[in-house]
Amino acid sequence: MRRLIVFGCCLIGLMLAMLLPLRSAWAAAKVVPGSGNESLAQAVEALSNSDSTQYALFVAYPGENRAVYSYHSTQMRSASMIKVFILGTAMEKIRDGKLSLYQNLILHSYDKVGGAGVLAGYASGTEFTLDTIMRLMITESDNTATNMMIDLLGMDEINAYIKRQGYKDTILQRKMMDSQAVAAGRENYTSVNDLGDFFVKLYHRNCVSPELDDVMLGYLEGQTDTECFPAALPGVMICHKTGELYGLYDDGGIVYQPGRHFIIVGMTENYSSRGRAIAILRQMAIAAANH
């Protein structure tokens, strides 16, 4: 009899252990009844479940009495999405008089890295305003410009800004294109919730200051990667940032859809294919626009 009881307890424990991950996944995705997001949740979950890619999504409707929708927000590799937090750090220092938009920075040969951007093609010794460097970091996702900003601000200072602003899943641990850091396990991370919170603050002009928030919005409006959300919502003004590494593609920002503005951030990891991931994110953006 004792053996049967022990066996039964072990069996129940095993079943609970198997169910816990499922329960956690359900809890991360469940929508509170009456939140206004029920139909959006159904559409997003159907799209996510149609593919093996890991998707995370944040949607907020600032003009509506409606809860924020967050789907599977977790800490994920940030790719170039980390650059908005670097931008926020710099803008705080400009607001506080420690930096100026129009101070000059010198491009050195050791600053130059590959990947996205145009700055590495300029001659060493060329001077650029801080405004130009930050604009390139966002509009072109310029990696050389980003590394110059990290050197100017300091990695510790950027992470202090991130912590001070309450972004719980975000950390900067390496420069752009630093393969040695990646091999050593130092990666940059963020989440759709942290990015969504950043863009919500920016939408309400309480990220840094109304004037400097407008400058940031101007950079984000000039984003040259229009493959994802802008392709899904043609003709709509979108102030956004994209990010891409092997196995992931992200897009996020503010959609100024006539009659209905909304903030949306989509992140992916371990995608089944790049094209498929972008196609699903586009459909999620359309669902957010219509539900």
Structural class: alpha+beta
Helix and strand sequence: HHEEEHEEHHHHEHHHEEEH
Number of domains: 1
**How many DSSP E strands?**
9
**Strand composition percent:** 15-25%
Give me the number of helical elements: 11
Radius of gyration: 21 Å
CATH fold title: Beta-lactamase
How are the strands of the largest sheet arranged?
2-1-9-8-7
Report on the biggest sheet: 5 strands, antiparallel
CATH architecture: 3-Layer(aba) Sandwich
Protein model, in words:
By secondary structure, this protein is an alpha+beta fold. It has a single domain (37-290), classed as DD-peptidase/beta-lactamase superfamily (Beta-lactamase), CATH 3.40.710. It has eleven helices and nine strands. The strands form three sheets. It has a five-stranded antiparallel β-sheet with strand order 2-1-9-8-7, with helices on both faces. A hairpin with a 2-residue loop joins strand 8 and strand 9 (260-269). Helix 3 (83-95) crosses helix 6, helix 4 crosses helix 5 and helix 4 packs across helix 9 (210-221). The protein is globular. The model is unreliable at 1-30 (pLDDT under 50).
Summarize the structure.
The chain is 46% helix and 17% strand. By secondary structure, the chain is an alpha+beta fold.
Secondary structure layout:
Blueprint: H1 2-29, H2 38-49, E1 54-60, E2 69-71, E3 76-77, H3 83-95, E4 104-106, E5 127-129, H4 130-139, H5 143-153, H6 155-164, H7 179-183, E6 189-190, H8 192-203, H9 210-221, H10 229-232, E7 237-245, E8 248-257, E9 260-269, H11 274-290
Helix pairs in contact: 2-11, 3-5, 3-6, 4-5, 4-9
